[in-house]
## 1
Amino acid sequence: MLEDGRISNRQAVFLIVSTILPTSIIYIPAIIYQEAAQDSWMSVLLVTAYGVIVGAIIAGLGLRFPDRTIVQYGELAVGRLLGKVVGLLYAVYFLYINTYIVREFAEFTTTAFLPETPLVVFSVGIVLAAAYAVRCGLEVLARANEIILPVVLVLILLLVALISPEMHIRNFTPVLEQGILPVLQGSYRPVAFLFTETIVMVMLIPYLSRSRQARGTIIRGILIVGLFQLIIVVAAIAVLGVRTARLEFPFLTIARQISIAEVIERVEPFVMLIWVVGGFMEVGVFYYCCVLAAAQWLNLKEYKALVLPTGVLLTVLSIVLWENVLELTRQISEILLPIAMAMHVGLPLLLLTAACLRGKGGGAR
Amino acid sequence: MPRSIFRKLLSFRRKKKRPFSKGVSTDRAAKLSRDLESNLEMIRDALGKSMDVVIRELVMCRTRVALIYIDGIVDRTALRENVIRALMVDTHTVDPLPGPGSSLVASVKEKVLSACGVQESREFNTLLDGLLGANIIVLFDGEETGLALKLPGFETRAIAEPHTESVVRGPREGFVESLYTNISMLRRKIKSPDLRLEQVQVGKVTKTVVCVAYIKGIVNPKIVDEVKKRLVRIDIDGVLESGYIEQFIEDAPFSIFPTVGNTEKPDKLAAQLLEGRVAIFTDGTPFVLTVPYLFMESIQASEDYYSRYLSGSLFRMLRLLALIFTTQLPALYVAVSAFNPEALPTPLLLTMASAKEGVPLPALGEVLVLGAIFEVLREAGVRLPRPVGQAVSIVGALVVGEAAVAAGMVGAPAVIVGALTAISSFVVPSQSDAQLFLRLFFTLLAGFAGFFGLFMGFILVLTHLASLRSFGVPYLSPAAPLSTGDLKDTFIRAPWWTMVRRPRVIGWKNPRRAGAVSPPGTPGDEEKELAHRYDEEGGGSA
């Protein structure tokens, strides 16, 4: 085995939450609000439901082959050649989506906190830290996350609690002013692919201590993400109202508005803490999946040799792929979104159908 | 050129093991001969002309007998009364011409010598080792067997309160340098037949006795085996302190965090063993090693368990806070003042700005200089004789605290930060080495990249901590991997009557340690009756 560590199902839930939450709390409120306005919270519910369904598909696929990753069972499901193609697709895809995450991380950090520092500092910093964690293995990643995630969640709740005096219920009315359509639209955009990032589980299910319960694990992870996303979006609507749509980072603005007795003020460092440690976990998980997938695809005995090359590739790509943040945002919705839909939902669904029809795998039974 | 250096390094690693001591001239398997003179000659050969080796010859029942011992490490009174006197006077029970089936040596051993431990041996080296380990060797003319009498008697320090782990409430005795005294202190605490003490000898020249202690049935036997395996692997000439052992058996020799714990207190050690840990006693030092050692142990103190649970929990959290303070405070100060001054409330910001006015150094410089000065003062205070130490601290307080600020060398806020950091650093002594490195690491990162650097450092340190294991147990457990049952005794110390189980991560066998689950205040019938009577009598004397 390339990875002989095992993670508990609770650690897997934590990993899923860490994989999805950090980027989504920073970027999602504005994106949803542009479409669904005061009904954004309904969109979050819809997206969560969608995430649960996709999670169930991914789990269903993984459970047919509970001790293999997608790179390994791809061959079983659709034959040797096609299976190799599927494996390669995922290895490349994990790298590709990670370049977006790294770039987003760097862009946000520089825009929001350290405008005079060049982007590359943040890209290199986060990738180096993630490389160290990935080298240490899945168990270490999961254990570090067990400390990081509770801190992140508590901080989010704390920030929301501190801003609660500024909340206004009237921002939620009128409910469904334009009918249900904007709600649906709000839940379509990049939101949809973020909530299906449970795709990382196709690489991790075999390393669960109780892999048969993977379905519950994935769904629990998604529900926690949905809950916190709901809290953030509700807070954003309640505090900022229509301003949410025009702001780039509503969550940051919320944090900036906190002022308790003129002592607890300007708590951006906390947002930065959430962002940096959360972003680290997010990059780390995708990084790990990419390296593991590549090593399995190449039939290597050790994945450690791939960590550094992948890291270099990741850093460089995250810098050269996009000229500026506008291009990045445009490509997220125009290029990444369709690809992500295909990789997160389409391909697993195809594989699942193929495996069912060919009667391959039957771990679930 | 670099290639040859590389090759040299490689050849250094490949160098063959050489035997350690060439000084011992006798070969390993030498046996005693029947001739007393030649036996004595062998001993003289082996020991040279050491002034403390005494060979006392006497005659017992017309047989020449020689006593060999090392003066100063054997009990002289017992030697005089129970050995020499016995051999010279109380020999009427000995058959001078033993028949077949019995020997002179055996009958002397059985009927004459009143020492506790007597060992018969024909091997020269066994006797020699015994001689050096405070035994008295008795050799008989015409016999191939010698006796080794265990009669150690040397000066040791009296049991006293240890300096490192002093307590307000709790036993005050601490371990001493003598292994056997230490073991006896542990035995007095745990009177269970399951307490096992296994001896290992480490050190080719010093032949130090090392003792592995554990409670059978509670300990994880795999950990015991691993400890023994690592101890046997140690190949060194001398072991003078348990620190030697620690550095040979620890899991992460390149880490700044210790993965082997130590204690000077028998009560703490007993508690560790009862949780399923393994202890390693080393002769000659009061510091006993304990494994596995977890990060959380550094914020636990024995007093948490002796005081009531509310205050115990509170102080534990205070310790955690102090640990965060001492590692983060200078870094936070640097990050705030150099990168994000707006993170402070405005009045405080203004105060700080005015205090820093005219200070030539940037925040990073201030903090580093103050930190360095403090470390120097602390080191001076530890090494110097006590009266001088006081002078050092006065000078330190005056120079650093008053004069430096008054002269405008450093700002007052930096001094406050430095002082807080310094005080907090004494709260968690078992991580003191790591604290220093962490503080420096975080401060430098914060100086280069502000909060971003600080948080990156936080991630790196956390990942490193998560990657550590101590004898198979993850270093951060029970927090990561999360073990909810064990959290009762991690950040808080739950009441004793709720801690029914031993920590799962260490002693996985036989997890139940207590029976009662109900709080002790729940009145049973008897108590109710008592309370009733008390009320009827009008509240006692009042």
## 2
Amino acid sequence: MTARYAYVGDDPAGIAAAATVLEHRARDLAANASSASGELPRLREAWTVGSAGDRAYAVATQLSAHLDTIAPGLRAGSDALAEYREELVLGCSRVDQLNSAHRVIAPLESLVRSFGDWIDESRSAAYDRAVTELRVAASATGYGSLWEIEGDYRAVTQRITSACEVCEAALRRSRTAAQGRAPGRSSFAGMLPMGLQTGPLIDGFISRGLLPPEAATMTADELLTYLKDHPDVARNLVDNNPGRGQPGSVEAFLHSLGQPTISAPGTDIAALQREQTSALFHTLTPQEQAVVGMLFPSEVGNLSGASFVARDAANYVNVVVAREDQAGVVADLEKKVADLRSMGPYPGVPASLIASYESQLADARALLGTYDRLVAEPDRQIVVFDAARGAFAEVSGTISPTTRNVGVICPGTTTNMGTILGNVKTYSSFVKAAEPGQLAMITWMGGGLPQSIVPEAMSDSYSRDLGPLLASFSKDVRLETAALTGGSTAHLTVAGHSYGGAVVGIAETYGLDADRVMYVESPGMGNDVSSTSDYRPVNPDVRRYSMTAPGDPIALVQGADVLGYGHGGDPDHMAGVTRLATGNYKDGTPVAGPSAHGGVFTPGSGSWDNMVQVFTGGTVQVRPPDTVMNTQYGPVMVPSSAPSTPLDIP
Amino acid sequence: MPTEYQVDVRATRATGASLARLAEPAGSAAGEIGGLRISLGSGVSVADELAAFASVWADDLRAVGASFEYLGTAVAAAGTAYESTDAAAAAAYARLPLRRTAI
């Protein structure tokens, strides 16, 4: 028999276990802090004169002082959890009582009510008996009616909710006191000179002249700033490749990735290396990951399995160098245009030539603008970058222990490095729409996209280049998400807009790792794809969605596929794909027509809201099947006027 | 550059080793606290905040552990280096009278 009232809040046993761990560790670390402070005078006495001794003593003092703060921080968490647990235990006991009372009172009250408002003489004895039984039960249980029991359950719920909020606030206070700039990272880790586990690496770079001597005492953030201000040093690092390094070192590992290996037939080398790389990077502190990224930017920036912290730091250095190169390109073009203009009307210099250079200059300036912003905004998380290939990916939001969903979206035709930050801004609206901290979005452009509809977007060549890269990147995201969320039940959605949909389709033929896939205003599901059986999904339970706004001209090419032209089956009519409604804009006008091709991303529109639901695993609105209208030209499919139907995403 | 040094090399080595030993408790605490998770409760839950709390403190403890290990090893190595330098110098001087005698 199911209970009427459910327990509220967390499992008290789980909370008690967490509180115990924190309490025990706080005790151990308090003893540790005591030992550390005991070592200080011994260190001073052993090394009374000498600058290295002074420095060692200063560092040990600082370390000991920080250690003193840890036990109280953990104990604050432990105490808060213990108090919360007490409320939970009381709450459970109270809910048990309420359920017990409900079981007694409910049938008796129901019986009394069944007599109705008027009781005739023949039933009055029975009625009196029922009322008496109810009163006796009320006396025994302390509740005279279900209404009172309901009221008490609401009070229990309110009390547990308050206790939960108090506990959360205490945990937050303790965390905030220790937290650094980035979520999930401590400020102490951020202050460390990077010469800890990466110390020998830094020393080696200094001795080889790749870094200045002062790098030995810089924090990771200081090194990043230094490299921003010294592109020549950044370039040295970009041009440097990992050497053999010390056995067991990070450098030796990175070097080994480029070496031939012998393995059993059928071994998935890429998967193996991805897992080994992830395991290695996640044994390092985030600061060390960042340092390794900065020291080996060319190797780590796009390295499968490298932590996103390392890839981001590496790509910052790569962007610093790309920006300097691009500034040179812009300066050259400006000089060319100025020279041509200064020649005035001259028979050898047609206006079209100047116009051509001016167009190149505008593109080059747009690209430089992107790099300028990336350098000026070091908190952006760039996890793919290759200036030569036009490859870029940026995380919006953060992937942290609270993340429930991660979305990857590939944009379409005319997107390039000069315009990609506009896409990032558009897609980050999904992050803002989700519960705080629960969704991270990645704007992914793994290389050049078509820059014209005809002929470039007709060809499958871009999707065939990018599809395998996206399939591989999806596995990187899955692995990194699992590492950052502690094993994670976070769901991964991969989406493609316009030509990006064709890229996603080809990626699916290479083994895309996703829980949900979404085709948005897509020309097809990948060249040569005629059904979802052509795909090789990593997750066999992947769910697919599509949306195409009525009147979007993309519909004219959906399903067209001849050799290397066209992009396979029409996602809106493919078996196994749920077709979503695009609905209306906020002002009530339908998301339809040519402008809806990009208009589907308008925040607040039905199409945008459906995308939010897919990315966060909510409830989507399914578009009803089109109806057939017979015209003088033959039957034509037109959107149904039936309302869309809600569908929960499992 | 300083020219004065006063070091008890044995005590320095011993203190360095003691400091390095403090890394282990911090490292193991980081591992256990970093893995603290509870399943989401009904209606309300501290699961998300506890995960964020655990993540920050585990990061902090990892850094503390790494710092003790590095500092302790460096202090011990410094003691050894002073001793080696002294021994090397003593060996060099010890050879000089022999050469004179031979001449």
